[in-house]
Design brief:
The structure is a homodimer of 149-residue chains. With 149 residues, the first copy, chain A, is mostly helical. Chain A has six helices and two strands. A two-stranded antiparallel sheet of chain A has the order 1-2. The longest helix of chain A has 18 residues. The radius of gyration of chain A is 18 Å and the shape is elongated. Chain A binds a DNA duplex (30 and 30 nucleotides) through helix 1 and helix 3.
DNA sequence: AGACAATCGGACATGATCATGATATTTTCT
DNA sequence: AGAAAATATCATGATCATGTCCGATTGTCT
């Protein structure tokens, strides 16, 4: 599916946080809106925190907030925080002969990787939200799903 | 890594078969040249056979051959035979409200998927070989690795 | 200040899928 | 018949997606 389930979850979570940027959002609430299993989402949020994308606050009135404004976070950053889409620096069949340069096959694959990296780097979380404000649909599939509690 | 290990193996195998198109190549030989664990390669070849990309022949003088000419097989076909990169037809958070149309996030992801599908569909196995004949490097990283046996 | 409750943060456990190995079984050429 | 192959089956360790628990913080209320 191009990106892993986990990376897709991470994007959902970040988008949902961006929709309420500034407010502190609790894991349970996020889980409900994004339809991500709460226990798993918790782990994903930890990863995003370590990557410096979100800030967490414990205790009462705690929760998560984005570290940066939605227009300062690219989709690529979120994906890379979870499962880096690495470029191919060297050929998987590592033969001594070609330490320089990849073979045609892997050169093509690397180009494709570079292409999707560029695509994902080219738009931000905010881009995913702006559209929503222009009518049609909300950031996360019109997900309003049972207001918190 | 964009495509799975298995899909990458499948590409290596197909490229290696293409390099000797017409000849019947044995699994062990393929495994040596492509550096793919023989037991696993065997399973991949089964999948490729069921997908109609290669033809197999049992018994003495048996082995595998491409079903079609290298220029008639796209990289995408090989990948799809192993692990289909599906378009997103519907939003993963399947809420009734939006049976039509994806939300911005998933629309973008779907576009990215479409993009890589197009990229991979746009060139053939032969394209990976032609370059090799023009000097520089061979189809599979100059892999000549210990001639059969 | 102290108790309490809401939250995150980590540790451990599990089923599924992936990548792989080992082995037996069938087919087919010579 | 015998050997060389593919094909099929079973087993394993690693990683992924997930669940469960408990411990560590921290705001709020007496």
């Amino acid at each position: 599916m191009l990106i892993s389930q986990t990376a897709e979850y991470a994007l959902r979570a970040i988008v949902s946080l961006a929709e309420r940027h500034g407010q502190s959002v609790v894991t349970q609430d996020l889980a409900r809106r994004t339809r991500i299993p709460a226990g798993y989402l918790s782990k994903i949020l930890q990863t995003l925190r370590r990557a410096g994308l979100v800030h967490s606050q414990r205790g009462l009135r705690g929760g998560f907030v984005l570290q940066r404004a939605p227009d300062k976070i690219s989709v690529l950053e979120v994906i890379d925080a979870i499962e880096p889409i690495r470029r191919m620096t060297r050929c998987p069949l590592d033969l001594p002969e070609h330490a320089s340069g990849l073979c045609p096959l892997h050169r093509r694959l690397d180009e494709a990787i570079g292409q999707v990296r560029n695509t994902f780097a080219s738009f931000s979380i905010a881009d995913l939200l702006d559209e929503s404000r222009r009518g049609v649909s909300r950031g996360l599939c019109d997900t309003v799903a049972a207001p918190a509690r």
